[in-house]
């Protein structure tokens, strides 16, 4: 079963009658059992892709293009989003109740909250915690747990490792790879290109609202990227990581 996005564009109508168009002509495919990545500089339109696919854009947004699942228009409940900001969690509701609420709104039977938390490596006690009582890594897992509670087979994780220490970031990426191994189709939006390349089948690179290429993961490590922007993005991150490790080495 394949989710296919073709020529996705988003433009916003302004009060003065003018338009801005921050996303133009994105193509993307995602099958169950795989991870695909979406990367790009800040403001490139990555979150916009997620919001357009989820139907979350404001009324002045005009979305064009095709979004199909197995050849049919994408139906509600097939795709879930773990958003970037932990402020997407309800600050006044305990996490367990939030997981149950997502399941109920998606028409799912009442979930086993402890099992839902354990699946994400969260302790049982997290069910009684309010969002402000969670660490950054726990909150990122909580966002994924609420998305999974909908029972959707496809998941978008928007910047799931942002602001996390390297070990926690590794664990979150392993967890997303594990969800794909269980049969989910997982799209990961991330600035963390080396970690993304380690788990993704292929990565789509956006530059200022336009895709410049979709490259198989091995094209990054084998230096076979075709577009200069993709190469610069990869080299900037791997060069920085190498520099830091050299600086950390004893002299
Ligand atoms: N509701 C909106 N109205 C007008 N423009 C918007 C709206 N939402 C997003 N944009 C514009 O779309 C562009 C892309 O934003 P988006 O949040 O998708 O970037 P991003 O690639 O996710 O960036 P970052 O990595 O910094 O989160 C930005 O220029 C932003 O100003």
Backbone structural class: alpha/beta
Which regions contain 5 or more consecutive residues with pLDDT less than 50? none
Order of helices and strands: EEEHEEEHHHEHEHEEHH
- Total of domains: 1
CATH superfamily: P-loop containing nucleotide triphosphate hydrolases
**CATH architectural group:** 3-Layer(aba) Sandwich
**What value does the average pLDDT take?**
94
Query: Per CATH, what is the topology?
Result: Rossmann fold
Radius of gyration: 19 Å
- As laid out across the biggest beta sheet, the strand order is 6-7-8-3-9-10
**Largest β-sheet summary:** 6 strands, mixed
CATH class: Alpha Beta
Q: What compounds sit in this structure?
A: adenosine-5'-triphosphate
Report the sheet-strand fraction.
Answer: 25-35%
Residues in helices, as a percent range: 25-40%
Provide keyphrases for this structure.
single chain, 251 residues, alpha/beta, Rossmann fold, binds adenosine-5'-triphosphate, Peptide/nickel transport system ATP-binding protein, ABC_Ni/Peptide_Import, transport, AAA+_ATPase
Task: Please explain how this structure is put together.
- The protein is α/β, with parallel strands linked by helices and 251 residues long.
- The protein has a single domain, classed as 3-Layer(aba) Sandwich (Rossmann fold), CATH 3.40.50.
- Helix content is 36%, strand content 27%.
- Strand 7, helix 5 and strand 8 form a beta-alpha-beta unit.
- Helix 2 crosses helix 3 (113-119) and helix 2 runs parallel beside helix 4.
- The longest helix has 21 residues, at 228-248.
- Residues 12, 20, 22, 40, 42-48, 58 line the site of adenosine-5'-triphosphate.
- This is Peptide/nickel transport system ATP-binding protein.
- One of its GO terms (molecular function) is ATP hydrolysis activity.
């Amino acid at each position: 079963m394949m989710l296919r996005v073709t020529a996705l564009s988003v433009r916003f109508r302004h009060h003065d009658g003018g338009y801005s168009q921050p996303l133009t002509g994105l193509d993307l495919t995602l099958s169950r059992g795989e991870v695909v990545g979406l990367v790009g500089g800040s403001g490139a339109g990555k979150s916009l892709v997620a919001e357009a696919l989820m139907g979350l854009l404001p009324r002045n947004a005009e979305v064009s293009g095709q979004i199909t699942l197995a050849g049919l228009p994408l139906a509600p409940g097939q795709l879930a989003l773990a958003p970037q900001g932990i402020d997407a969690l309800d600050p006044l509701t305990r996490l367990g109740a939030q997981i149950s609420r997502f399941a109920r709104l998606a028409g799912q039977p009442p979930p086993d909250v402890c099992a839902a938390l354990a699946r994400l490596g969260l302790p049982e006690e997290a069910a009684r915690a309010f969002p402000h009582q969670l660490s950054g890594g726990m909150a990122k897992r909580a966002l994924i747990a609420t998305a999974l509670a909908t029972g959707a087979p496809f998941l978008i994780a928007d910047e799931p490792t942002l602001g996390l220490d390297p070990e926690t970031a590794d664990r979150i990426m392993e967890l997303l790879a594990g969800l794909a191994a269980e049969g989910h189709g997982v799209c990961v939006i991330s600035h963390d290109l080396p970690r993304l390349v380690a788990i993704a089948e292929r990565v789509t690179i956006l530059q200022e609202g336009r895709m410049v290429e979709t490259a198989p993961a091995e094209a990054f490590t084998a230096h076979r990227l075709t577009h200069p922007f993709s190469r610069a993005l990869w080299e900037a991150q791997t060069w920085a990581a190498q520099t830091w490790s050299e600086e950390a080495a004893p002299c």
